[in-house]
Design a protein that fits this description.
heterodimer, A: about 700 residues, Cytochrome C Oxidase, Chain A, two-stranded antiparallel sheet, about 0% strand, globular, B: about 325 residues, Immunoglobulin-like, 2 domains, 6-stranded mixed beta sheet, 5-stranded mixed beta sheet, 11 strands, about 20% strand, binds protoporphyrin IX containing FE
């Protein structure tokens, strides 16, 4: 075997097009071209503008949880653009006259990358990023418990995403869907590097996610402000804790399953092959032992977001705190008991199916309770329809519809008739788009000022909401319909003429979603351009209720000048009721913050190169990189000079500065909340004295 | 501002929702569970509707209450009272937790009964016809033990219980005839079962619903539900020798050619289900790199599309 492993000329993205020109290969070549040109454009821009140095010192080497969170969200945004574009291409493929412009396998590559990207490189970075930015600020912590590990997690996820992008340029991705069931993904039926791309990109981000889970959980256990008992924690911290625990336990079966698949493929093992005692059903079980908790990893943080956005924009205390906490915990525990519902059709006994069906529906109880709690939070409130609030309301309505079809699918008999159909595809998008994306969009619109100091433009935000909302219904309601008419999922072309009108509606919907995404890009652009008029330095632009709104926007690197003593669930609301606009300082002491380091980035990039080696069977490269990685981590472990000190005087000066800003900022009423008069000191004049 | 919102939602969201609910009311299509032919599929449809209806007591209050709250309690122009510190009500808690628990208990009992009753392993009548199935890359073999074998075509007498014994070679597949019954996986090295009772005379389509590569859209078969006499005549038809089927089946990716053959030797299917290579050498004929075979797949897709187009034109007259 050559030193370049299985790599050869045909793996370069444009070669297949010249060998066999067709629309399908042309699209593949164009996609690869976009990646290459995009990367080049970024490099040129950075060089011309002289941004390399600031990028390196402010971002790449940072250990600040807020900046790490922002990078996660930027990663998610880039991947979301790819994911949505792929979705639009798939919808276009199915409305064009059969057999469409894509080959069956190219279409398969698209749904496989779309699914993999949306789950692992959009949804996960979004929620991990948001948690990174917000959670420490809510619990009175100055950073994550393990800031260096946090950077490693981040860059491992970026490395995984980079591999998925690389598959557009070098070689190709797999075609077995985001679930990659063997034996189809075994070496016999999928001999090329596609499945290895799936295995190793997921391995990288999976390790990153496990480490994030550990980080979040330990931070919450150990870094809460004095007096903040568990039952005084903000709900977002609660959902983070449950998500973190799910991450720690759920990512392991995925890593195990994909490692076993790798051994099957390249080391002659027979875990999942049809012969020599292998059993593919073990893969399905392991995968969904990860996969079902995964959907709650995705959804719980969004539940946390809604539990803050809704009270804030209803001007009212959260209804049923205790109920919400227990519902969250119940969901987290139950999520490990239902995985079989993903394969009721695998031939196990009816009793087993029935038990898992009932367990699945049981999750409906705490979930239903949550929706009612949010509704009762709005009840007798004074609702203001910010972008964040619109996304929350849109979520509640839409999510309930997805819940109905979810409970239907929990009945094994109905699952027999809807599994592997577009009905199922409609169902899970019906959960994920409101339950994950809308939640994250709401959270980003709501908490954006904490990281950047200015609000996002409301006009474009609301436009994006309506386009996403309408786009969602137009895209996926028709899929419910044709799913019941017997249309299978993952089908490159559907020939039944009865489907066509529905597919057309769905196409229009996908374009609306694309327009929604475009509005969001414009929203960010416009907001950055007008940032002066959107600045909210006083730090409380929405008359907020949590500690995070007491810090000033943007939040300084050390987060808290002094750590507050917590005596209730809403210390900031109580401070404001006592007429304060700045938390009373407790004790100013010298603090230590981690110094910047490039080591997290370097370790993860080495791991990424190693993974690339494994994908193309350059075993030497893989081995070399994994050894280098451990050596680097070891070196870092012996580095004793990793902290810098911020003195009590500096903190006091910063406190005085913030106090001065707040005292000189004009108060505005809720009427002016969304205008440029809002400098971060919004007060409900109707009730406040 | 709210006025503006409200009108926009009236203009855009409602039509979308109506389109969505139309789905539930129509049940129009040809090949789905919403137009069942046999009792098994009919039961699936019933469960689907019953389940949907049982969800409404929990969900309708949200779907109606939420817009109502959004309108009534809006800050500008709303008419609701404002109680900023109201955050607990034992009554509401009991109703919410109790109500959803009760409905899940009801649904749970239904699930238990449905699942046991509609167990695909349970015979749907006395002395069902046995048909053995081998799913392969991208063709289906049906064996009427001791009588005959066929490819991509299964003929069944009307209103008769049938038991399919299912296995596969190569990748995992999912055996599905939506208008007669639900699906079950067909897995290499494994045996599964699907029981159903055929309904009235019909020409149906069954297919594999689990993606398995380049010719996945062609991975389907005809299901003819005929009279008892026609069925008996079918079993008497002239046929090709079994060995021809076996050699062909190993070699080609998509099938076009004769469909009817002698039955294999007794016990062949059982052995093949334990040792899938007996039927196709692990799917070797259809390796993605196999360029000649890929050409044939493209051709087959085009032929198939021609056929369906002609059919649907004929059907439309
Ligand atoms: C933005 C609008 C979106 C559109 C228009 C869209 C469209 C599609 C389409 C057309 C498919 C293929 C369906 C088929 O199998 O025939 C698909 C599959 C899938 N989508 Fe999306 N999608 C969207 C957003 C999302 C989001 C936000 C997620 C998750 C967070 C997601 C996750 C998935 C997954 C997991 C699959 C299954 C892939 C597979 O079959 O393995 N999608 N989507
Ligand atoms: Cu699940
Ligand atoms: Cu689900």
């Amino acid at each position: 075997m050559s030193i370049l492993g299985s790599l050869n000329w045909d793996d370069i993205f444009i070669v297949p097009f010249f060998k066999e020109p067709s629309t399908s290969t042309a699209i593949a070549a164009a996609a690869g071209g976009i990646v290459v040109l995009g990367a080049l454009a970024v490099l040129v821009l950075l060089t011309v503008k002289g941004w390399w140095k600031p990028l390196w010192t402010n971002w790449i080497t940072t250990l600040d949880h807020k900046k790490i969170g922002v990078i996660y969200i930027v990663l998610a945004a880039i991947m979301l653009i790819r994911g949505v574009l792929e979705a639009v291409v798939m919808r276009a493929q199915q409305v064009s006259p059969a057999p469409g412009f894509l080959s069956v396998e190219h279409h398969a590559e698209l749904f496989s990358t779309h699914g993999t990207i949306m789950i692992f490189f959009v949804a996960m970075p979004l929620l991990i990023g948001l948690i990174n930015v917000v959670m420490p600020l809510q619990i009175g912590a100055r950073d994550m418990e393990f800031p260096f590990m946090n950077a490693v997690s981040l860059w491992l996820s970026v490395g995984g995403a980079a591999l998925v992008m690389a598959s557009l340029v070098i070689g190709r991705f797999e075609t077995g869907g985001w679930t990659a069931y063997p034996p189809y993904t075994g070496i016999k039926l999928s001999p090329d590097e596609g499945v290895d791309y799936w295995i190793w990109s997921l391995m990288l981000t999976g390790i990153g996610t496990t480490l994030s889970g550990i980080n979040f959980a330990v931070t919450i256990y150990k870094q809460r402000a004095p007096g903040m008992t568990l039952m005084k924690m903000p709900i977002f911290a609660w959902t983070t804790l449950c998500t973190a625990i799910l991450m720690i336990y759920a990512m392991v079966p995925l890593a195990v399953a994909s490692a076993m698949l790798a051994l099957d493929r390249h080391a002659g093992f027979h875990f999942f092959t049809a012969d020599a005692g292998g059993n593919m059903m073990n893969f399905a079980n392991l995968f969904w032992l990860f996969g079902h908790p995964e959907v709650y990893i995705l959804i719980l943080p969004a539940f946390g977001v809604f539990s803050h956005v809704i009270p804030t924009f209803s001007g009212k205390k959260l209804y049923g705190y205790t109920s919400l906490v227990w519902a969250t915990v119940a969901i987290a525990v139950l999520s490990f008991t239902v995985w079989v519902h993903h394969f009721f059709t695998m031939g196990q006994t009816a009793h087993l199916n029935a038990i898992f069906g009932i367990a699945t529906m049981t999750i409906g109880v705490p979930t239903g309770v949550k929706v009612y709690n949010w509704m009762l939070t709005m009840w007798r409130g004074k609702l203001r329809f910010s972008t964040a609030m619109l996304f929350s309301a849109g979520f509640m309505f839409t999510f309930v519809i997805g819940g109905i079809t979810g409970v239907m699918l929990a009945n094994p008999v109905i699952s027999f008739a809807a599994h592997n159909s577009l009905f199922l595809v409609a169902h899970f998008h019906n959960m994920l788009i409101p339950g994950l994306l809308f939640g994250m969009f709401a959270g980003i619109n709501y908490w954006f000022p904490l990281a950047f100091g200015f609000r996002l433009d409301e006009k474009w935000g609301r436009r994006s909401f309506w386009l996403w909302m309408v786009g969602f219904y137009l895209t996926f309601m028709p899929l419910y319909a044709i799913g019941l008419m017997g249309a299978p999922r993952r089908m490159a072309f559907l020939t039944d003429p009865a489907y066509l009108p529905w597919l057309m509606i769905s196409m229009v919907g996908a374009l609306a979603v694309l327009a929604g995404l475009t509005s969001q890009v414009i929203q960010v652009w416009v907001s950055v351009k007008n940032r002066e008029s959107l600045m909210v330095p006083a730090g409380d632009p929405w008359d907020g209720r949590g500690l995070e709104w007491s810090l000033g926007c943007p939040v300084p690197e050390h987060d808290f000048t002094t750590i507050p003593n917590i005596t209730s669930r809403e210390p900031w609301v109580e401070a404001k009721e006592r007429g304060l606009r700045v938390m009373e300082p407790t004790e100013f002491v010298d603090i230590h913050l981690p110094k910047n380091t490039s080591m997290g980035f370097v370790v993860a990039m080495v791991a990424t190169v190693g993974a690339f080696g494994l994908i193309f069977q350059m075993w030497w490269l893989g081995a070399l990189c994994w050894i280098a990685m451990f050596v680097l981590v070891l070196i870092r472990s012996y580095d004793t000079d990793w902290e810098k000190t911020v003195t009590a005087e500096e903190l006091r000066a910063d406190y005085e500065r913030h106090k001065h800003v707040v005292e000189t900022t004009p108060k505005v009423s809720l009427d002016d909340e969304f205008t440029s008069k809002n400098r971060g000191l919004v007060i409900d004049m109707e009730t406040a004295q | 501002m709210f006025q503006n919102l409200y009108q926009r939602s009236r203009h855009l969201t409602l039509p979308a929702l109506l389109a969505g609910s139309a789905v539930w009311l129509s049940g129009c299509a040809d090949n789905g569970v919403m137009s069942p032919l046999g009792p098994v599929a009919a039961a699936e449809k019933t469960h689907m509707i019953v389940f949907f209806l049982w969800m409404l007591p929990v969900c309708l209050p949200i779907l109606i209450g939420l817009p109502w709250i959004l309108i009534k309690y809006r800050r500008q122009g709303g008419s609701g009272t404002y109680r900023p510190n109201w955050s607990h009500s034992t009554l509401a808690e009991s109703v919410i937790w109790g109500g959803s628990t009760i409905s899940v208990i009801i649904l749970g009992v239904l699930v238990w009964m449905n699942t046991i009753n509609e167990d695909p392993y349970k015979h749907t009548g006395v002395n069902p016809i046995h048909v053995q199935v081998v799913g392969s890359e991208w063709k289906w073999m049906f064996i009427y033990p001791g009588k005959m074998a066929s490819v991509n075509k299964v003929v069944l007498p009307q209103n008769t219980p049938v038991e399919f014994d299912i296995t596969a070679t190569g990748a995992m597949q999912s055996f599905w005839i939506p208008r007669l019954a639900g699906q079950i996986y067909a897995m290499p090295g494994m045996q599964t079962k699907m029981n159903m009772t055929t309904g009235d005379l019909a020409q149906l389509e069954g297919f594999n619903s689990q993606f398995n590569g380049a010719a996945f859209p062609l991975d389907k078969f005809d299901v003819d539900v005929v009279t008892k006499a026609q069925y008996d005549a079918f079993l008497q038809q002239p046929r090709k020798p079994w060995n021809e089927l076996l050699t062909q089946f190993k070699k080609v990716a998509t099938w076009n050619g004769p469909q009817i053959f002698d039955a294999p030797p007794k016990g062949w299917w059982d052995k093949a289900s334990m040792n899938p290579d007996m039927a196709t050498e692990g799917g070797a004929a259809i390796l993605p790199d196999n360029a000649p075979e890929q050409k044939k797949i493209d051709e087959a897709i085009h032929n198939e599309l021609h056929l369906t187009q002609n059919q649907s034109q004929g059907g439309a007259q």
